[in-house]
Amino acid sequence: MRRAAVTSAVLVAGLTACGGGASAPGADELDPKAALTAAALVMQKAGTETVDGVRLTRYRAVEEIATVAAGIPGLSPERRTALERAMVRGGRTLTVDFWLNAGQELVQYREFGEKNGAQQSVTVTYSGLGTVPKVETPAAGELGSVFDLDDVPN
User: Fold this and answer.
1) CA angle, residues 138, 139, 142, in degrees to nearest 5
2) pTM, rounded to two decimals
3) Based on the structure, what is the number of domains in the chain?
4) Winning range, highest mean pLDDT, from 1-5, 8-12, 37-41
5) Domain range spanning residue 30?
6) pLDDT tens-place string over residues 33-55
């Protein structure tokens, strides 16, 4: 079986087209686009699947947590250490899956650590590709900061 590789540049383009990525200062550590760009992951084709009635191609990469964290731009050494410590709770490696449609648009994203596997993954599924959503500005009291997450108990 021939294995196709997709570089992180292709996936970053898909994330950008889908509006993926964080824009708040310091939010890069939660941003799959920043992590992929920094880590320069090589995704291997892992098969085809149907998600919400659409035939998709799934790609997978497995990378060391330290490599992913080291490549995220703009993190102070303290934030990088805290991020690594938090990520390592799931194991020493991070598995990332991407499902792309025939137009190379990102339809689904999943990541998980080696300790708990896919049963404790973070999965994001995008819908309404190619449409412009109606966005309303939230009330000031509904806003927070990514740095508020530091106060969440483990």
Assistant:
1) 80
2) 0.59
3) 1
4) 37-41
5) 5-151
6) 655 565 556 788 999 999 989 99
